UniProtKB/TrEMBL annotation:
<comment type="function">
    <text>Negatively regulates transcription of bacterial ribonucleotide reductase nrd genes and operons by binding to NrdR-boxes.</text>
</comment>
<protein>
    <recommendedName>
        <fullName>Transcriptional repressor NrdR</fullName>
    </recommendedName>
</protein>
<keyword id="KW-0479">Metal-binding</keyword>
<comment type="similarity">
    <text>Belongs to the NrdR family.</text>
</comment>
<dbReference type="GO" id="GO:0045892">
    <property type="term" value="P:negative regulation of DNA-templated transcription"/>
</dbReference>
<dbReference type="InterPro" id="IPR005144">
    <property type="entry name" value="ATP-cone_dom"/>
</dbReference>
<keyword id="KW-0804">Transcription</keyword>
<keyword id="KW-0238">DNA-binding</keyword>
<dbReference type="Pfam" id="PF03477">
    <property type="entry name" value="ATP-cone"/>
</dbReference>
<feature type="domain" description="ATP-cone">
    <location>
        <begin position="34"/>
        <end position="124"/>
    </location>
</feature>
<dbReference type="InterPro" id="IPR055173">
    <property type="entry name" value="NrdR-like_N"/>
</dbReference>
<dbReference type="Pfam" id="PF22811">
    <property type="entry name" value="Zn_ribbon_NrdR"/>
</dbReference>
<keyword id="KW-0547">Nucleotide-binding</keyword>
<keyword id="KW-0805">Transcription regulation</keyword>
<dbReference type="GO" id="GO:0008270">
    <property type="term" value="F:zinc ion binding"/>
</dbReference>
<keyword id="KW-0067">ATP-binding</keyword>
<dbReference type="InterPro" id="IPR003796">
    <property type="entry name" value="RNR_NrdR-like"/>
</dbReference>
Amino acid sequence: MIDSRTADDGLSIRRRRQCPECGRRFSTTETATLTVIKRSGVVEPFSREKVMSGVRKACQGRPVTDADLALLAQRVEESVRSSGIAQFDANEIGLAVLPHLRELDEVAYLRFASVYQAFKSLADFDAAIAELRAHPSPAPTSTPQES
């Protein structure tokens, strides 16, 4: 190997190599494959589309665009990849979504959290809302409506 660097996408490594026999140079690209273990036990590749689809349901009726969802899915993938682990439970992916969704839209965050944190009662919602109030998101999630 002659040279190694992270590719522009940040998700793969580009390596420059040289054949020891003929001396010719060539490049390789290496990408770590992320896999998700579903509740049923089925293993499948990580999919940004599936992250977007799941979050889209929580964002229904909220001022969230497809571009916002695509960026959220990208951030989730980056945070999962940065852990260095290649295989995750589906629930872990859902939990990885939460901090990014909270920044995007607090109402959608509560909807999504109620599933992935297994809210069982109104007290669970109250506790989550109290946490949101105690530690507000850095940017406002919506603009107040005028009456």
